[in-house]
Amino acid sequence: MSLIVYITITFVIVALIFSLYQKSTNAICTSKKRLDGKTVIVTGGTTGIGLETATDFAERGARVIIACPFQNEGEDALKLITEKTENKDVVFKLLDLSSLASIRKFAADILDTEKRLDILINNAGVGVGGETTDDGMNYIMRVNYFGPFLLTLLLLPLLNKTGTIFEPARIVNVSSVLHNFGSINFDKVNVANYGLGILLYSNSKLGLILFAHELSKKLKGNVVVNCVDPGYVGTRIFVKSGTISGIILLIIALLFFKTPWYGAQTTIFAALGKEAGKASGQIFKNCQLSRAKQSAYDDETAAKLWNKSISCVKLSSEELAQCFR
Ligand SMILES: NC(=O)c1ccc[n+]([C@@H]2O[C@H](COP(=O)([O-])OP(=O)(O)OC[C@H]3O[C@@H](n4cnc5c(N)ncnc54)[C@H](OP(=O)(O)O)[C@@H]3O)[C@@H](O)[C@H]2O)c1
Ligand SMILES: *[C@@H]1O[C@H](CO)[C@@H](O)[C@H](O)[C@H]1NC(C)=O
Ligand SMILES: *[C@@H]1O[C@H](CO)[C@@H](O)[C@H](O)[C@H]1NC(C)=O
Ligand SMILES: *[C@@H]1O[C@H](CO)[C@@H](O)[C@H](O)[C@H]1NC(C)=O
Fold this sequence. Notes:
With 325 residues, the chain is of the alpha/beta class. Strands 3-2-1-4-5-6-7-8 form an 8-stranded mixed sheet, sandwiched between helices. It contains 10 helices and 8 strands. Helix content is 49%, strand content 12%. The site of NADP nicotinamide-adenine-dinucleotide phosphate has 28 residues, from helix 2.
């Protein structure tokens, strides 16, 4: 019993220190930029950081497309955003990033029906869930890394068409401080049950930064791609619902971590900020240029991961050429 008390006290103290540190570094995106006439996609724009990001863009007048795998959650979020911002041009579309078929369907629909795409926010992510996907791949890696990889490439023609050198289209990937614990093991990146969930999460987030690094080299000046680290944010991402540890984690997160509104600020900054539009292949934190761990900039790893990812998401070379047309 006393051990539990000690652990709890230690936990609370650590969380408090985190919380104080975070509050001292919280930054707010001060851009007054309007987005009238512009189109934005926020994956997972239905709760947490993504919901706040989508709401902000809707307030600025953008056409906002939010996407998640659950119809009812999507519709609830849609109602919330529309009521709050009075922007009628917000839509919800089904997208399950753990399924290649769903990503392809979503992207084809967007390419068919949208005239432009100014901003793509790869925000959706999962922190728990050991399941394997239909095609036997690892769920966390699929949703957090391979999914956005495929989605980004498929949407690239529309981003490229929309962006100009003066106002580039922007891709923002929501990475994490946990990328620091990540590593890329090429033999195992798509193995179903490899290692601890938290490490898989870290690996997926390191993968995103490497992807940005590699993609930025392949883009011309009219599309930029950057990552953000939102900090520690009080959402349910690491909560396995229905478990005691889940409830405790949620309480700690809600008490001591950033609110999702603060958590969204750096994403918004990377999407709108003037300086951020000049950067590509970089990572931002607290509305400032930051630096990922050194290995996230390794050219060889990035190129190798790129090749591996192309085959994991089953993109043929003809299709790939189409993405860069
Ligand atoms: N919270 C933090 O401390 C923290 C720190 C660093 C980075 N991040 C990153 O920030 C991003 C947002 O996280 P959050 O904290 O706001 O978490 P969250 O509240 O759990 O939101 C995650 C979003 O992703 C969507 N999503 C989950 N699985 C999906 C799938 N298979 N296909 C499409 N969408 C899916 C969810 O949709 P449903 O609502 O329908 O499930 C939800 O909208 C994530 O990439 C996360 O890794 C968070
Ligand atoms: C964002 O993630 C996608 C998919 O993982 C990747 O292709 C792209 O390079 C990433 N961009 C950045 C800036 O990290
Ligand atoms: C990636 O694939 C390309 C084309 O197939 C090849 O030329 C290149 O050497 C590969 N790079 C790495 C690092 O494997
Ligand atoms: C973007 O489109 C132009 C033609 O409009 C093309 O030359 C260029 O290769 C494309 N870039 C990418 C990254 O797709």
